[in-house]
Write a structure and sequence with these properties.
By secondary structure, this protein is mostly helical. Helix content is 75%, strand content 0%. The protein is elongated, with a radius of gyration of 18 Å.
Length: 180
């Protein structure tokens, strides 16, 4: 944990008033996965992208279960601002545990889901945003680097599993319709 705190402390040297505002805005986009949930809802509303919306929603559900229901309570890692109490937070203190980063996990699960759904125009900007959201969690001192790395890996896995699950269910549904 010592080296991770040193990395976070070094990142504190990057702070400027403008960058503080930008990072707070970027991290808010990931709060409760709201941006990704809204994107899934929009995709579900448009008949042409409905399949992509289901894939994204499936990835987010798998991510929420793995990250928030299973891993966070199981690992129960305290947050870096509870270790270094001298740091002035720019955001409200999160109330859950630190590992893995839920913002990062949901963001990368969404990127994988959009990629798996074939959303070429969406997955690349989503990847850029996911990287920014992940970095913002470090910049804002609410996650350790390994929390963000864990969130990234978990997001990739959840995005893949959620996508495969939804595609499997859709194929099963089509087979049932064809048999009827």
């Amino acid at each position: 944990m010592g080296m991770e705190i040193q990395i976070l402390d070094w990142l504190q040297k990057l702070h400027t008033p403008v960058l503080d505002k930008i990072m707070c805005l970027i991290t808010r986009l990931g709060d409760a996965g709201i941006l990704w949930i809204l994107l899934a809802a929009v995709l579900l509303l448009i008949p042409k992208t409905r399949k992509s919306g289901f894939i994204l929603a499936g990835a987010l559900v798998v991510d929420a279960l793995l990250c928030n229901v299973i891993l966070k309570p199981l690992v129960a890692r305290i947050r870096p601002y509870d270790v270094n109490t001298a740091v002035q937070l720019l955001v409200s203190k999160p109330v859950d545990y630190s590992f893995p980063s839920g913002h990062t996990a949901a963001s990368f699960a969404s990127v994988v889901a959009l990629f798996m759904a074939g959303e070429r125009k969406l997955w690349k900007p989503a990847l850029v945003l996911a990287v920014l959201i992940a970095f913002s969690r470090l910049y804002l001192y609410v996650h350790y680097p390994t929390d963000v790395l864990g969130g990234l890996i978990l997001g990739l896995i959840a995005g893949y599993l959620g996508s495969r699950l939804v595609l499997w269910l859709m194929a099963k549904r089509e087979n049932c319709r064809a048999a009827a």
